[in-house]
Each structure stands twice: as structure tokens, then as C-alpha cells.
């Protein structure tokens, strides 16, 4: 296998910079996180390809460009408290942690939760990531509010608990639409208690399942 560091450099250059990702902190984070450790071993050689990869249980790790695009839109600053719904492989959580955020991430599939927990905390020793096995559409009320909230699965609507747990001046990003088709990335901002909604383009994510999901 070609040196992973070289493959990451190429991924950043050809898939991210070439398509307009400019945030240097996002590019640095994605140059750093060893994405090949977040995919199934048999797929490690394809980990840096320009597409999502299966991670088991019918779920996927997002395409590198989508991770970069969403992370850039979130405008994460060091020290911010970020909530992610849909830990999956743990890759997006690692990228957020490399940006200097304190990450809270929720997954509902036990096997994925267990694997991400081991990889992030034991193997890679990320110190600022908290994981939880639960329905993430309910958010994480005990640790709210959050400066940033990122949902990495597609739902029918924006879950109410999440807008309630968004801090003043906060940003929330979620794919909304139909199941596995016709989804749009929705950016919610909260200013003086008022929510504003912007559409940021078409995306395709696996289902957000749960009380405020499918
Ligand atoms: N961010 C992940 C990719 C997520 S795939 C990564 O970097 O690899 C979407 C994940 O959301 C799946 O693992 C799925 O099980 C999870 N999911 C779906 N609905 C959920 C819910 N209500 N709460 C928590 N996790 C959920």
C-alpha cells in the first residue's frame, strides 16, 4: 500500500483544494486524521478514494469532500463544544477534534459505537471526544448548549431538541429530505434566540433513525 500520508496529501489537493475548500484548519485536520484506520480493513487501500465507503450495518463513512464541506460550513473554532449525531466510524469526530473542538458524538448502533470508542480513545488517544450510545435526535441535554451541531444522517425534518440545544450564535448543519434521495443540506443559525435557515445544496446520506427521525 502506498504511504497513507502521501495519499492524504493527494486527497486534500485533488478532492478538497481543487473543489474550493479553503479553510486551512479543515485542510490541516484532514491531512492529519488517518482515514484508512476508519474503514473496514479490506477497504483500507480505497480509504482515500473520492467516495463514501461501507462501514458495516448498512452505514457509510462519508466521502472526504462532504466531510470537508460540512466542517468548513460549521466554522469550528478551537475550544468550541460540538455535538455530532451519527458517530459511524468516528472519522468526522476525529476531524472535529483536530480542529480544536470538544466533541460530543452519539451513535445508535452498538457495534459501531464500540468500534469508534476503541479507535478514538484507546488506539488514537483523542482526549476531547465523548461518545454516547443513544438516539441522537434527542440531543445530549445534560451537556447542552452546543456551539455547533452536526447531523451526519438524513432526516425528514430538523429535530426540535437539537435547535433547543443550540447555543446563542450557534450553527447547526443537517441533511433534510426524503429517504436516501432528494436531500438538501440545511444550515440553521441562532441569533438573539431567532432561528434562520439556509440551504447549502444537495447531498445523500443514510437514514437518521429515531424519535425525531425516520
Ligand atoms: N459521521 C460518520 C458517518 C455517519 S453514517 C463517520 O464519520 O463515519 C450515519 C450514522 O448515523 C450511522 O452510523 C447510523 O447508525 C447513525 N445514526 C442514524 N440515526 C441515528 C440516531 N438517531 N442517533 C445516533 N446515530 C444515528
TrEMBL record:
The record's catalysed reaction(s) read: [protein]-L-isoaspartate + S-adenosyl-L-methionine = [protein]-L-isoaspartate alpha-methyl ester + S-adenosyl-L-homocysteine
> So where's the catalytic machinery, residue-wise?
62
Q: Which gene encodes it?
A: pcm
Record EC number: 2.1.1.77
Protein name (record): Protein-L-isoaspartate O-methyltransferase
Which positions carry the signal peptide feature in this UniProt record? none
The species this protein belongs to is Desulfocurvibacter africanus subsp. africanus str. Walvis Bay
GO BP annotations of the record are:
methylation; protein repair
What are the annotated GO cellular component locations? cytoplasm
Family per UniProt?
Belongs to the methyltransferase superfamily. L-isoaspartyl/D-aspartyl protein methyltransferase family.
Amino acid at each position: 500500500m502506498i504511504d497513507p500520508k502521501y495519499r492524504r496529501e493527494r486527497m486534500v489537493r485533488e478532492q478538497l483544494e481543487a473543489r474550493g475548500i479553503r479553510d486551512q484548519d479543515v485542510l490541516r485536520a484532514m491531512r492529519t486524521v488517518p482515514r484508512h484506520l476508519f474503514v473496514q480493513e479490506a477497504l483500507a487501500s480505497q480509504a482515500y478514494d473520492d467516495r463514501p465507503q461501507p462501514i458495516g450495518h448498512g452505514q457509510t463513512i462519508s466521502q472526504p469532500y462532504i466531510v470537508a464541506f460540512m466542517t468548513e460550513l460549521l466554522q469550528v473554532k478551537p475550544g468550541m463544544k460540538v455535538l455530532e449525531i451519527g458517530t459511524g466510524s468516528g472519522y468526522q469526530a476525529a476531524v472535529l477534534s483536530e480542529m480544536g473542538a470538544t466533541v460530543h458524538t452519539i451513535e445508535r448502533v452498538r457495534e459501531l459505537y464500540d468500534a469508534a470508542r476503541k479507535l478514538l480513545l484507546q488506539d488514537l488517544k483523542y482526549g476531547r471526544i465523548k461518545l454516547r450510545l443513544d438516539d441522537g435526535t434527542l440531543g445530549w441535554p445534560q451537556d447542552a448548549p452546543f456551539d455547533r451541531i452536526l447531523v451526519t444522517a438524513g432526516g425528514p425534518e430538523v429535530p426540535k431538541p437539537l435547535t433547543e440545544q443550540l447555543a446563542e450564535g450557534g450553527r447547526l448543519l443537517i441533511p433534510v429530505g426524503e429517504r436516501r434521495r432528494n436531500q438538501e443540506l440545511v444550515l440553521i443559525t441562532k441569533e438573539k434566540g431567532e432561528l434562520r435557515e439556509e440551504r447549502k445544496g444537495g447531498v445523500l446520506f443514510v437514514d437518521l433513525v429515531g424519535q425525531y427521525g425516520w
